[in-house]
Every structure is written in structure tokens, then in C-alpha cells.
Amino acid sequence: MMTLTDIAMRFGGQTLYEGVNWQLNPGTHYGLVGANGSGKSTLIRIMAGELAPSDGNVGRIASLRLGTLGQDHFRFDEERVIDVVQMGRPELWEVLEERRRLLAVPNGASGEQNAEASARGERLSELELLVADLGGYQAEAEAAALLAGLGLAQGRHERSMGELSGGFRLRVLLAQTLFGAPDLLLLDEPTNHLDIASIRWLESYLREFRGTFVVISHDRHFLNSVCDSIADVDYQELRVYPGNYDAFERAKTLAVTQRDAEIARTEQRIEELQQFIDRFRAKATKARQASARKKQVEKMELPEVKRSSRRFPSFVFAQRRPSGREVLRVEGVRKTYGTQVVLHDVTFSLERGERVAVIGPNGVGKSTLLRVITGETEADEGAVLPGHELAPGYFAQDHHEQLKGRETAYEWLSAAGGSSDIPTVRGALGRVLFSGDEAAKQVADLSGGESARLLLGALMLRQPNLLILDEPTNHLDLEGREALMSALTKYPGTVLFVSHDRHFVSAVGTRVLALSPEGLEDFAGDYEQYLAKHGEDYLAIDGARPRGASRAAGAAGAAGEGYAERKGRRRNVAQLRRTVARLELEIASSEAELERLEASFSNGEYYLRASRDQVAGDAQRRDTLQATLAKALPEWEAAAAELESADPE
Known about the structure:
Layout: E1 2-11, E2 14-24, E3 29-34, H1 40-48, E4 55-60, E5 66-68, H2 81-86, H3 90-103, H4 114-133, H5 139-149, H6 166-179, E6 184-188, H7 196-208, E7 212-216, H8 220-226, E8 229-234, E9 237-242, H9 245-280, H10 284-299, E10 326-337, E11 340-351, E12 355-359, H11 366-374, E13 381-386, E14 392-395, H12 409-416, H13 422-431, H14 448-462, E15 466-470, H15 478-490, E16 494-498, H16 502-508, E17 511-516, E18 519-523, H17 527-534, H18 549-559, H19 563-601, H20 604-609, H21 612-646
Helix pairs in contact: 3-4, 5-6, 9-10, 12-13, 12-14, 13-14, 19-21
């Protein structure tokens, strides 16, 4: 299908990677991962033929249909959205366009001869056959289904691309790429600008995709869901690992640990031999042994050490002083833009120490709600009432307004963080990976990831007791996301955040505010519990089931059933309760043992104490436990949902 042979890429004096050899196999679903700046997007462009490598070559079969996500968001401004998607199959689109032009000529048009009219009719007949052969009669329905899955309502399909925002244009271009049904699909951050519902739809689509794809993503849950192989760009090389992202992370951690241990053992042996040489080379009786040890040292080779491109920021959030028990109260907030009602009668309160996730489809008003709470936007009705000693800190989704001009990162952070103490500011810069000369970068020239880290650095210095975060993970790599998740779970203050990263939402949130066109649902539980309650299809694009539908159906069924049916239902409910209890016990036991093993693996001393066989055995046990959880969790969710339907009381 496609083969990369000895690929190297250099920019000036910087080497991104060299000696890259990669055979892409039919039907394999690859995730391409690596730190920001490691060259993932560059490699995608090399594979797509948009960029020539410094060395090496790319081979592909002649008939390969390649699909890439278009980057020119303004190319189709005058075209209908539904037509832009259908352009993903150029051969079909040319036939449809020719048919459209010929059909636009009225019968018996002025000046048209009988022969011309006859030829036009014959050509239309030929085109109809071509349309049928190319699947053209189903094309518009297929395109509409793709758009609906990606969150574009039917009413937008007939509008022009120029009327859409940048995020929705990207969705249309993604639908166009998928519509082309390529053999090899190359996707660079396709989940950007998608809400959780659309990401879940894309996950489902890619899992069923029969061709090969390579996808770059910083969304751990997404990679786990769609990938069966991970290609890792690190140490200026590329290595392919079987399995999803979690399996890759385990394998890489073990490989790096073993390599570091081998280097440590070799260095220790060299040091011991050198001490012997230094001690005895002057003694005649030991000179021969010293000379032999010297030759032994000269023959020993340390494994080549390359620096990993992965860098982990060290976010630490503190609060200068705690807030009152009630952090803030939102009462009856309403916000409209023109005739569109974005927020309607939104009411809730935040308690100290909560971490609240605001979820919902794009365009439902999540960011608007955060801006109203921070005072960036004024509500048309209602009020936001701050609690005692409230000191909020806001991370806006759009970085450009905050980071512009010719200030350096150091100057900006000093002013934004409210600190003139040089060691304090330098320490914060180091924690967010601005070391040495990087602190002198001008803020207007920072990448998306650098901008996000700098803004988070300012929140670290300001020490608010309420963090309000609008899509904080958008530009962070996987290492940055993991570091931010860890910091937020340890933060003693209150967090209110919007994110489309399901792994992040599940790990950080302890409560869910679900915004929808119908209003706000305040759910007292985390996101996984929210999904378990509403069912896997609750966030599906084609509409959620009405709240309480299964409960109402169960009650209606119970009202009309006889004694035998009631007895059978009670027996079924009892069985389901036992199943749910058994699965909950199994899940809790597996999670506890898995947590113990993870604690061992994260302790550096473990690898010095344990034998290689023990490490391998523990790693195998961890894999078994994760497989058990992967099987038990869906079974528990299904049994719990069935129990809720069967037992309306």
C-alpha cells in the first residue's frame, strides 16, 4: 500500500528524524503520536506527497486512493455544503455537474437543432448510467448522513460554506474526506473543533473503516478507541507498536526502563573497572590485571543515548486563600444573539472543591456561559452572584487576544501573573517548559501549545480559588494533558471547565452540567456515571431518548401485567441485581489491584529491586486486569441499564 524507506527530515541544523522505515499494512488503523514539534504533521505531509523528505523515498501502489483533510477553509466559500462533501469523489462529481448543466438547458431551447437535442438526450442517458454505476443516487443521502454525524444539522446542508464558522468548515472538509472512501486516510488532529458527541460518532466511523488510516491526535480516549497500532515519533526515529495507546505506553515505558537499567549497569561496571585500573596499575604484581581490565573497558560500549522529544510540564495550582462554601450562584441567566437564544434560564451553584464539567454540542452556549460568569459577556437576563472571598482565574479558548504584541514570554508572565520576583517568574516558566532562551520568545510568535502553557503558568502565579477553563487541552500534547489532569485533581480549589476530550472530562470532573437546546441538566456525578445513567446513545446526534422514557415504559408495562408476568419480572430483576453486584465487585477488585501495580511501576526503586521475570510477570498481570476491566465495564453498563428499565421503582 505505502512504504517509507530511510526517510529523514531536517530543517536547518535541526534533525526531526532519520532512518524512518515504515510499511503500512492494509486495514491497519495507526495512531501517530509524539511531542509537539517532533515532526508528526511533517511526516503526514511527506506521506501525502505535499512535502519532499531530506532523504529517503515514499513508495505507493499506483491505484491507491489517498484521502487527506483539506486545509484551505475558504476554497469552497460559494459552494453549497452538501455539494462540497460530494466533491470528495471527483469522478462522480464531474458526472453530476455535467448532468446538471445539460438538464439546465430547456427542451426546444432557442437555436437548438434537432440533432443537438438528440445528442443531448443520448448524453444524458449515458450520464444516468454513470451516476448509477458510481453510486450517485445515494450520494446526497450519504453526504447528509456524514454531515449529521459531525454535528451539522439538516438546515445547514443547503447553505454556502462561506456562512459557516471555521470549526464547522473543518467538519465539512472532514466529511468530504470520509465521503471519498479512500484506501488510505491521513488525518491530522481531526477531533479539533468537534464536540464530544461528534468525536464519539467519528470514533464509531473509524472503528468500522475498512481501509487503512493514520491519525494524529492528542486525545488519549480517541486513540484507544480507534487505533490498533501506534507509530511513535521520538528519539529522532519512528517505532511502531501493536495495540492501542495504553498498550503502547506500557510497552514503551518497559522498553525505556530496561534500556536505562542496562545503561546504568554498564556505567557501573565501567566505573568499577576504572577504579581497579587506577588503584593497581602502578603495582607490578597487579599491572597485568590492570592492563587486562583496561582492554576490557575499551571494548565495552554504552548503548547510544538520544534525548527524548517528550517533555512533561509541571503544573501546580494553589489558592492564595480559600473561597466560601458556596463559590458562586448563577440565577436565571439568559443570553441571545439576534434572534438566536443561546442560554435560557440557566440556574446552578458551585460548591467549594467541586470540579464541574460543562458538556454539550457545539453552539449550545458552553463558552458563552463561561464568559458570562467571568464578566467577559453581559447576560440579557439573570445574575451571577459571587460567593465570599471569590478570586477567579480564567483560561479563554481564544489565546490571540491575550497574547499579542512584542512582549517576551518572561515579560508577559511577570505582568499577567502579578509577580516581579525574578526567581518566582523564572521558576514558573521552567515548570511550563520555557527554559533558557525560550523565555525570550515574543508572545505573538508562540505556537498553540506554548501559548496554552504560558496562560496556565499565569494561573499558577495568580493562585485563584476558582479556575474557569475553556478548552484548556486544545493545543496541549498528550504529556501536557496528563500533567494538567494530575494538577487539577490535586488542586484544593474549585474548577469549572469545558472540554471535548472525553478522557480529560472523565478524569477531572466530579459533576456534570449538560447544556442542550432544551436547557440545563445538573448531574451529581462524573461523566462515566452520566453516560451509564443515560445510555451510550444519549449524546448521539440523532437525538437523545426522552428523559425517563425507559422508566415510564417500564411502569406502563408493569401496570398491565398479570401475576405470572410480575413473578417473572421480579425473578429477572433479582437476577439482574445479582449480576450488577457481581460485576461491581469484580471491577472494584480489579481496579484496586491495578492501582497497586501502577504504583509499583511508577516507583523507580521497583526496577532496581525486581528481577526481569518479576517485571514481565507484573506487566502481564496488568494487561490481564485491563482486559478484565475492558470486558466487565460494558457488561456492567448494559446490566445496570437493563435493571433500570426492568425495575422502575
